[in-house]
Structures
1.
Amino acid sequence: MSTAESTAQNSRPTAGLLQLLWLASPALPVGGFSYSEGLESAVDAGLVHDETSASDWLVDQLMLSLARSDLAVVAQAIPAWRDHDLARITSLNDWVLQTRETAELRQQTEQMGRSLLTWAGALGELGRGVAEALASARLDPPSYPVAMACAAARSGAQDHDSLTGFAFGWSENIVQAAIKSVPLGQSAGQRMLARLAQSIPDAVTEAQSLNDDTRQAFTPLLAILSAQHETQYSRLFRS
């Protein structure tokens, strides 16, 4: 094998990793920082009031909500995007939109999905493949998990790594929401993030084990808190 061929082989996984880090970054301009997903309402209700209760809440949300719903959708949508299976992609997107239990949770996934499409389009050649794939699917609108799965499929990263990145990106955003709404310090935030990071491998394994019959979106208390948040008098976050 020539030096050039060896360099090319080594650069492919590196490029996929860099793309994955980019997608998982809280700096990605899709608006994830502006949502607390019911956490702010839990703080207002006194259910979350310190580092311990916030940490417990977020780990439960990761395992009982994200892993069984959006993360499972990402796991199933990535191969569908690779196979250009538009019927499957549409079915998964419809499931996400139909299972949002409140108006603001529905608005969140729609806004973030549209923003990811806009971001990809604004990148020019770098994002052309993602923007064209999303446009070809004619999703109206693309939900965030399905749109992110499209970007992950185009990145060349391994599926397990893509799911890990998606979960870690969610964790970083939700920890920042806890820091602002409880409120807590940055050191407490890092301890919570460390605990979430320890739980992410189990969440990814759970998500990959689910199918259409076992995937679910059933978090009644979170739905109630999200609904209450829609009319909460004073709030920092959009949801």
2.
Amino acid sequence: MGSAPPFLRGFNNPEHWPRVIGATREAIDAASAFGAPNVVCFTGYSTRNPEDPNSTHLSPEEGARNCVDGFRQIIAHAEEKGVTLCLEMLNSRDDSHPMKGHPGYQGDHVDYCIDIIRRVGSPRLKLLFDVYHVQIMDGDLIRRIHQCKDHIGHVHTAGNPGRGELDDRQEINYPAVMRTLVETGYSGYVGHEFIPTRDPRQGLRQAITVCGV
């Protein structure tokens, strides 16, 4: 989101709104100009000041309320431009690597993010269903896809544990997950976000094959 540190600052803190909403508006305009359907957005971390280890925290209720109020300030622009904001749910459990987990991220459960999306009430705010993050925090992937099928705007993949390739060393049954997405009418993109542990092209070919249902 603009020049803000990744994921740290989001819609859950009004102090960050000028920066975050401005960056989101620019991203919406760029997506519209280039024909991209979506812009990724984040709740932000619960810490009020990410740079201060002694900073106080936003409660889940306050963070959700602020997200709703913040999204309502930009959603009309997304509607006008025909671009969908996709709120990404991230796991807060894995602290082994900065790209494997995000301890402190407030939107770390599907239900929390879906509640924000429903309260905003716009077809241009949806969920970024990251299969890897959802598996870590909530699991029950197939049932959850059915439950929130009307709110899924984009999908990410990676193997768990470790956020590696979609191979037989990880626990997610990706063919079943992909079939469920098709069955529920999802017609958007699936982005592969694994961290390569070998030839990236080989891993990408495997991911496309595994998910090609």
